[in-house]
Amino acid sequence: MPGLEVEYQKFLKQVQEETDDPEWNIENHPARKILDHYPQGFANWVGYIENLLLLKQGGYPFEKNDLDIIEWKALALLEKYHTYKRPNSQG
7 with 23, same domain? Predict the structure, then answer.
């Protein structure tokens, strides 16, 4: 089917042009939807919560009012995630 081959080549050329264009990548990258959904500092905030989790796991004595309710919930979610992510050591 020569028609499909021509369309495929045209498609590949278009993809190459689009992906070589940084402006296109900024607007159309698959991660764009995720980045648009969260504030710019979201990754930094998650890193902050992960550091809190390390402190908690290390025995740091957090008090009830040390964190706000969102931070406590995020900490619990990360802790649950890391618990389930660990490989089963029982075999």
Answer: yes
Q: Which of 49, 48, 45, 57 is nearest to 86 (CA)?
A: 57
Both 33 and 50 in one domain: the answer is no
Token pair of 51 as six digits: 């550091």
Tokens for 61, please give them.
């004595």
In a domain, 90, yes or no: no
CB atoms within 10 A of CB 78: 16
* pLDDT digits (tens), the chain, 91 positions: 455 556 777 777 776 776 677 777 667 766 677 667 777 788 788 889 999 999 999 999 999 999 999 999 999 998 988 887 666 655 4
